[in-house]
Amino acid sequence: MISSKIRGIAMRLGATFLAIILLIGSVAAARSLEIYFIDVEGGQSTLMITPAGESMLIDAGYGPRGARGGGNPPLQNGRDAGRILQVARAAGLERLDYVLVTHFHPDHAGGLPEVAANMPIGTFIDYGEPLGIDRMATNMFRIYEPVRLTARHVVAHAGDRIPLKGLDAQIVSADGKLITRPIGNGGETESACRDVEMHPEDGTENYRSIGVMFRYGAFRFLDVGDLSGMTLTHLACPTNLLGSVSVYLTAHHGEYDSNVPALFAALRPRVVIMNNGITRGGSPYVFKSLAAEKSIEDLWQLHFSTNKGAANTDEARIANVDDGTSAYAIKLTAFADGSFRIANERNGFIKEYGRGDRRKTSQPGAR
Fold first, then answer.
1. Angstrom distance (rounded) from CA 175 to CA 206
2. Which of 104, 106, 133, 253 has minimal CB crowding within 10 Å?
3. At a CB cut-off of 8 Å and minimum separation 6, what does 7 contact?
4. Full-prediction pTM beyond 0.85?
């Protein structure tokens, strides 16, 4: 009698233990990397939440109107900061563990004073300070520097790694310098480099942008800020330094000087996301080159482009289609097996991308 009771208790405990193990396993399997592409009207602001729950904001869009790199702006009425804070709080964040500033232009760093005034920041990452010959960067730096003094500050160098939990984040460009050794499955000489166009640098600090390759298992995401000209080209030519990626955020908002077909061929992205504005970025030449790259399954855009000759993607994959009054985001959820899904906040459209087989399904639905 006693032994049967013990056996019964043991069986129940075993079943409970198995249920717990299965639950833990399902939770572990459901862990994901979340990336929010926030609409800042043709600037950049990308929020990442790692599988371990750490957060990183890459750039913060524009500052208040009339204070885009000029005098010290008032910490109020910041359109882009408000949009960033809304997304961050909706994602359950109460602080930002890291803020990475790709470069000091006002469409990338302008919103940081107000973001920092409303949400604690653990660490600022940037490439130090501007050269002093780019007025936009110099003026913006005067506003940004006092803000970064309020937290830990790290100067980034090409080849460094950002210590994000559960995510490999390697800096591939910073301060005008690139990594010297290939990473991932890079290392090949790109045949597409034979006909590469020589894009001169634009005279600003764009070429000094910090670029980061993020790897979560088999999923790879590349963000290079406004890297452009030959500095951008040298990531692929003559040698592919980066290998292939799952998702690529267009450099310099898809401007003409980021149109490097050899880079697209080297990266072989499954999906490209363009952080363009209504007229800013979204060069017709970039649209044409992206359409010609066979590896690309889909293009997603933060805005419908009204530029002449712009071949916009399907409207279901465009977050904002009005005159700039809306601010819908694009949310990407990635898994360690390489699969991911992308959701359009405006219309609830969701597309699923399988592991490596390039199969995808789409459906309307909530985020």
1. 9
2. 133
3. none
4. yes
